[in-house]
Amino acid sequence: MENSVRHAVHHWKPAASKAEVVHLLGEEPLSIRIQGKPYAVVMRTPGDEIPHAAGFCLSEGIVDTPADFATLAVCEGDAANVVTVTLKPPRDTMAAALINRHGYISQTSCGICGKEVVADLIQVIPPLHDNIVLDISAVASRLDALSDHQPLRETTKAAHVAALFSSGFELLASAEDVGRHNALDKAVGKLFLGGSLDSAAVVILSSRISYEMVQKAGRAKIPIILAKSRPTALAVSLAAELNLTLACASKEAGILVFCGGHRLKGLM
What we know:
- The chain has 8 helices and 14 strands.
- By secondary structure, it is of the alpha/beta class.
- The radius of gyration is 21 Å and the shape is elongated.
């Protein structure tokens, strides 16, 4: 498992376009099993699996001190994204009620990986159609102007935004929240409840793009995702499988297009 991977992109600038290779933040599921039972699956950047599981158990109230652990172990194999936790008595008895009532298990197999997450999701989210092509310079312009839709961030310096646009670049809805997932859910929910979600063609995010954000856009049938920060490797894999267009701002100028460039007129 790597905490970053190299990925080829098209770097579009107003005056030119070229091929580049950039590093994407790694994102993989980590399954945490406690006392032989699946407890939770968290999405994270690979590395420090044992400390991650230990800190998670502390924050969940499973343990109070390191002495409460009997063992902390990672399953064998390069692709094993599983940490097994066993507790010493009497901590195992004290934590039993919390472990047994825990209810957000999403993956339970040993050795789960990003490919399995993508495979599971594309079975419930159909790939999107190629029914839209937008001018890349106009798309980049909307990304540059995202701060126009962030009044809460202007005040607090601590809010994410998700803005939804039509194929004619009309702002349909926007929402801010401390959580990037929440901001996207709010913006989508506004259109969903109003019966106009099918008008959304572009979502622009202030945050990085993780696989969950791609999943949300896919479910909402929004074909183009733009963001201020780069996507994770798993997000690009899922977006490609769902036939979404994924791009982000470049530190130099223009935007980096990771997949779905066929929807962006003027890319090449």
